[in-house]
Design goal:
The chain crosses the membrane at residues 12-35, 316-333, 339-359. Keywords: Glycosyltransferase, Membrane, Transferase, Transmembrane, Transmembrane helix. Belongs to the glycosyltransferase 2 family. The protein has one domain (1-44, 54-411): Alpha-Beta Complex (Spore Coat Polysaccharide Biosynthesis Protein SpsA, Chain A). Helix 2 (71-79) links the parallel strand 1 (58-65) and strand 2 (86-93). The chain is built from 16 helices and eight strands. It is globular, with a radius of gyration of 22 Å. Strands 3-2-1-4-7-6-8-5 form an eight-stranded mixed beta sheet. It is α/β, with parallel strands linked by helices.
Amino acid sequence: MQTVAEIFNILLWIVSTIVAFYVLLPSFLLLIYGFKRLFGLSSSPLRKGVNITKEYSFGAIVAAHSDLTLVPPLVDSLLKQDYKNFTVYVVADNCTDINLPAYDERVKILAPETPFNDKTKSIRHAIEHFVVPHDAFIIFDSDNLVRPDYLSILNAYFNMGFRAVQTHMLPKNTDTRFAQMDAAGNHWCNFVDRLMHMEVGVSSAIWGLGVAIETELYKQILLEQFQHGQFKNLGGFDKKMQAQLVKSLPLLAYAEEAVVYDEKIQDGSKLQKQRTRWINAYFKSMHEAWEVTLHGLKKFRPGVVFFGINMLRPPLFMLMGSAGLLCLFNIWWNWPMAIFWAAAIASFVVSFFAIVTVMSKDSGIFKAMFFLPIFVWRQVKALLRFNDAKRNFLRTANTKVVYIDEILKKN
């Protein structure tokens, strides 16, 4: 019986240590951020000065599926770039009515004869139809928009030697409570997984959009290693791509200055569908997370180990649910630890509010965070419908037609 109790205590200690690490990490990163800002320190490469020796050729790949309604605003924002060495490739996958405005020669419309229903195949199709050998390309979803200086900033980063760069994603719309809460989560992730990664010298995590990659690098480590770009499952595409990039590069950069706008979820039902897909992708990507962690250990790369451990972090509602259960359990088992867990949960909540305040000046987003329990409940329902994502990809339709000029006027 004593042996069973000892084993239980060891397992409890391991689980508690893992959960505590994830719960307390944001507060620790916030302290580092505050210290560096207090003394005027920053790891942003642009602030150190850039010697522009080359105008990189960029291919902007727009992976559109089923609907092209939101493509014109994105193309409009790309054509308004103050940087001119680029070509736009709109992959109209499974689009029956291709009725787009007449653009100039920098915009190419690609309509696959056989539907791909796969983002990776759309990207590969665009690369195969490059009209010039682009140095790098950027992946966009059809609902994105970019600021006029977007490509010029990316050019600066590539001139500094970076071979893959994640740009700064901001919300395109914050006109509903769900959109505001969705945006709050994005701001938190931008801070913890991207901005602070760069500040401490670790590769940035990527989104599935707004990421620029050197073309030859993509061909080398992705098209070749993944059966010429055909992933076995589309779910978790960005996780699979980032795992290979992080293992192959000294640093996957984060360009905070290059802003890409993304449409946020407007209502609860769409949020639930999206989160069901994301939760499924998280469990599917655990293999890649362990692979990155072990690669870092074998190659003695602490930054890669840290990145891999962060890839293993569960969705926040699951993480905080675990912390809450540990707190309740320890009221009976070990009350000093119950006090620790209550303090840890409180520190996470305070740091979450502080981080979102640092990353966004939108008062609506701050006020929306008081409605987060509703947001969490929708994610719990998404978890309960986890198996739906195995049977269906559960795409979420975006409908917010907004042009970049409208957003720039507001800002």
